[in-house]
Amino acid sequence: MTSALPIAKMVGSNRVVLGHGIVHVAGDASLPAEEEKALRRRLVEEALDSLKAEGSAE
Amino acid sequence: MRIVHYLNQFFGGIGGEEQAGSPLRAVENAVGPGRLLEQTLGDGATVVQTLVCGDNHAVEHQEELVAAVLDHVRKAQADLFVAGPCFDAGRYGMAAGALCSAVQTEIGIPAITAMHEENPGVDLYRETLYIVDSGKNAGNMKQVVQRMAGLARKLAAGEPVGLPGEEGYLTRGLIRDQFVDKTSAERLVDMVLAKVQGEPFDTEMPVTAFEPVAKPRGVDDLSNAKVMLITDGGLVPKGNPDQIEGMAATRWGAYDISGADDLAAEDYEISHGGYDPRFVQADPDRLVPLDALRQLEKEGVVGQVHGEFLSTSGLSNPLSNTRRLGREMAEKVKREGVDAVILTST
Prior knowledge:
The complex is a heterodimer of chains A (58) and B (346). Chain A has 58 residues and is mainly α.
């Protein structure tokens, strides 16, 4: 999970989730606390999704 | 010139793979490639001692081996330490690199080895050592030893060493000041002209090439999986107990999060230059998303969150170093039965 997408691609990472900024990859200081938590949860869910094997159980 | 020479079991004449477990032994005078080295150097150069060790033994007992070899080299009052050539023998290359590097730093005499570009020893030691390009083929022994001898003479005499292409060693990735006749603009135009005319030219800034990474199979069942969090954003417990450097880090740490539902600001700090750390300092979950992952664990979406997160600082770090850090972390991940990792990177 990173906001430096070109670097992740350059080094050959094959499961990349776009983070929410260099200074808070998994957060957003400008959001109210609850919305920020929801955003973080979505990012982690996205990461977990990309870790699943193709065709594996939901 | 007094030389101590290190060889593996094969080139040291003990035997093949069946002797890979042989411990270190010291033999007076030159053996095998060492004889060729002596002849090539001439001028009173003598291999006073040959140290031979099996490849498996060397890798499995590296610390002991390094200590024993340092002891032999000191007692022999050597002026030069030579290991190999190792060609594409990986374990041999790893041992040769570790030994040359230790001799150079601990004893302060020049050390030289030779390997094929893809020997794993090259990745680890190219910045520290002059590693002569041996290619894969041991049939080129004579040519390789000639290159080693040429470089060895210069190093022993303290003479300046030329560029990798001129001397036949592998690029070290170092930047060195040099006076040249032409400005960079002129050199650039020369290069462009050579390129359009289809003539050979050497770039002064080779682009680092990355090997493609095979995509590992995904997790079949997340609800039974152990998931670990890793970051290169430099999050460390207050006081930075492992003294992880904020730039060109040489270390990483594993920090206990078992039983924690999220990471409290007062318990952590950031050791990482470059980015503005205030947002993560205010809430470390913005970098290491433990709160969200813990919630998903409670809901049964993931089986288990590993009891520690791993952290280092990913800034201005030589690749040889980051590869080592990555390898060490991967060993821990594997050892502790982790099924999947979320790595957050700044």
